[in-house]
Amino acid sequence: MEFTEPDMNRFLLIFSAALLLSAASSYAAPGLTRVDADSEYVRLIGRSKADGNGNICFDWSGTTVRVRFSGTSLKLDMSSSRRSYFNMWLDREASADNDAVLKVVSDTTLVLAEGLKKGEHEVTLQLRSEGEQGMATLKSFATDGRFLAPKPAKARHIEFIGDSYTCGYGTESLSRDEPFSIETENCNLTYAAYLSRYFDAEFNLVSHSGMGIVRNYNGKKCDTMTQRYGRVFDEAGKEAWDFSGRRPDLVVIYLGTNDFSVSLQPSLRSWCSEYSKLLGQIRSAYGDGVPVLCVASKADELLGYYVKTAVERSGFPNVHWVAVGGPAQQRQRTGCKLASECRGTEKTGLCASALCLHAEFMGNRS
């Protein structure tokens, strides 16, 4: 049998339609309900951006995703520009111990849960690696049941601005002499995460290892945290972040260690000038009603004086400072070299004892 040109055209049309239906059927995965990452059923905590195609992109360490569903399974289609690592919890609040660690390289489908009892469930994902390790892009979630409205936000929210102490460089390393690897970085084991859990608060991190106020580690002056603070992304571009969303109840700045690294020391004038610029950005974004706590480590004997002086000279109201030292700082010196981080459970001592003196900012813990 020979095909005439009209017959061939009809055959190609029908064949193409069949391929499209097959692809659509494969994508929909019969029996599964799918929602885009930017849907109302997906809650993001931290800075992120919708790309207009249903996807959500982010790269700041600590960015958290929460999804509720009624069913027995949950899958996620996503990608990473390099290598992104996530902590995951199933049907419980985030804690120091996670239920799983997920590695994402390029495009992938993650089976977040399967074989669950029928009923309501929630999955929480937290980006534990930094922006320089890759930008994460969430595409869609799928379940064999139905998606549920997210739980409301917690009553308290803290924003932390910092460096490796804040994003968890080397927190899972076995000793301070162990070379850094992405696998040992975990922001969930930092003082920021412990303090947030203490106050039952949500949090977001604006942090990057090696960053400083005037200059970064080893004297580098490009893209300090003062310059990065107002951005949507840590590494994936310089687009400005929209601060019109929820205001934090407290902002914590824990910077300065890298400004004084490798025996360097910024001038007091330049330090106060740049610190004031950062405080000005915070005040412009959130107003005077949000308290700001400026923390000084004991990385250098002058750092406490520098932070105190910067706060006093800034003239901004509702800005406070505290120096962290003694046993808490000593315990910090037992982790991955360069950042001198500590192992997870020891983070409870780092800063928490000093910061808890300022509990009046957050009210009494319930």
Structural account:
With 366 residues, the chain is α+β, with helices and mostly antiparallel strands. The termini are far apart. The model is unreliable at 1-28, 326-335, 337-354 and 359-366 (pLDDT under 50). The chain has 2 domains: 33-148, Galactose-binding domain-like (Jelly Rolls, Sandwich), CATH 2.60.120.260; 156-361, Rossmann fold (3-Layer(aba) Sandwich), CATH 3.40.50. It has 8 helices and 17 strands. The protein is elongated, with a radius of gyration of 23 Å. It has helices spanning 5-28, 164-167, 191-198, 225-228, 268-286, 303-314, 327-331, 352-355, and strands at 33-36, 42-45, 49-50, 56-58, 64-70, 74-80, 83-90, 100-105, 108-113, 120-127, 136-143, 146-148, 156-162, 201-207, 250-254, 292-296, 319-323. 22% of the residues lie in helices and 26% in strands. The strands form 3 sheets. Strands 1, 3, 4, 6, 9 and 11 form a 6-stranded antiparallel beta sheet that branches. Strands 2, 5, 7, 8, 10 and 12 form a 6-stranded antiparallel beta sheet that branches.
Summary keywords:
26% strand; Jelly Rolls; Rossmann fold; 8 helices; 366 residues; disordered N terminus; alpha+beta; 6-stranded antiparallel β-sheet; 2 domains
